[in-house]
Design goal:
Layout lengths: L3 H29 L22 H9 L20 H8 L12 E3 L6 E3 L5 H22 L10 E4 L13 E4 L13
Parallel strand pairs: 3-4
Antiparallel strand pairs: 1-2
C-alpha cells in the first residue's frame, strides 16, 4: 500500500534515467562515427525490485504516450493553509517593528531634529553646498578639474585679508559673509 508509491516513483525515475543515458550515448557515438548500438556504460548495483535495463523496452516506451511522472518535478508543499491569525502574528512580530528612538534632540544651530552624537542633516547640506561652490571656483582658477597644485587652500570671505602665514598658498575669495559653521582656523 504505502510502500508501493515510492517504489513506483523510483522505478519511473530509473527508467527515465536509463532512456536519457541511452539517448546521450547514441548521440555521442553517431557524432563520432562509431557503431550505433553498444551496451550501456552505466552500471548500477541495486535491489532486485529495481527495473532492469532492456533496450527493446526503451524503444517500445518511446513510442507510447509519456507518463505524467516523466515531466513532474517533486517539491515540498505545505499540508495545511496558514490561518490569517498565524500570518498576522508572523508579519507583526515584535522583532520586525521599528525600535523607538530615545536619542533624538534639537540641533543647537538650525533647530531641526537630529540624533545625538550625529551631525545634523540640514546643517550638513549647507556645508556640502558651500564646499561645492568653493570647488567650482577652484576649478575656474586652475582651468580644468584635477589640475590643482599640491598646496594648501585658504578661503577668504568678505572683509578678510590674507596674512603672512598664507603666502605660497592658493587663495580663494568669496563675496559673502563667512558662515557661522566655517571657522577661520578650519
Amino acid at each position: 500500500g504505502a510502500c508501493a508509491v515510492p517504489r513506483l516513483l523510483a522505478m519511473a525515475m530509473l527508467r527515465r534515467l536509463a532512456r536519457s543515458w541511452v539517448a546521450l550515448e547514441t548521440a555521442v557515438l553517431q557524432a563520432l562515427g562509431l557503431q550505433q548500438r553498444i551496451a550501456p556504460a552505466l552500471a548500477l548495483q541495486a535491489p532486485e525490485w529495481f527495473p532492469q535495463y532492456d533496450p527493446e523496452s526503451c524503444e517500445n516506451d518511446q513510442s507510447d504516450s509519456p507518463s505524467f511522472l516523466d515531466n513532474i518535478f517533486l517539491m515540498a508543499a505545505p499540508k495545511k493553509r496558514r490561518t490569517i491569525e498565524v500570518n498576522r502574528c508572523r508579519r507583526r512580530n515584535v522583532r520586525k517593528l521599528e525600535k523607538v528612538k530615545n536619542n533624538i534632540e534639537v540641533c543647537q544651530t538650525c533647530g531641526h531634529l537630529k540624533l545625538k552624537h550625529v551631525l545634523c542633516a540640514h546643517c550638513y547640506q549647507k556645508v556640502v553646498h558651500e564646499t561645492a561652490v568653493v570647488r567650482a571656483q577652484i576649478q575656474e582658477q586652475e582651468g580644468r578639474p584635477l589640475n590643482a597644485p599640491a598646496v594648501e587652500t585658504v578661503v577668504l570671505y568678505q572683509g578678510e585679508t590674507a596674512t603672512e602665514a598664507d603666502k605660497g598658498k592658493r587663495i580663494i575669495e568669496r563675496n559673502r559673509k563667512r558662515p557661522s559653521w566655517f571657522t577661520v582656523g578650519s
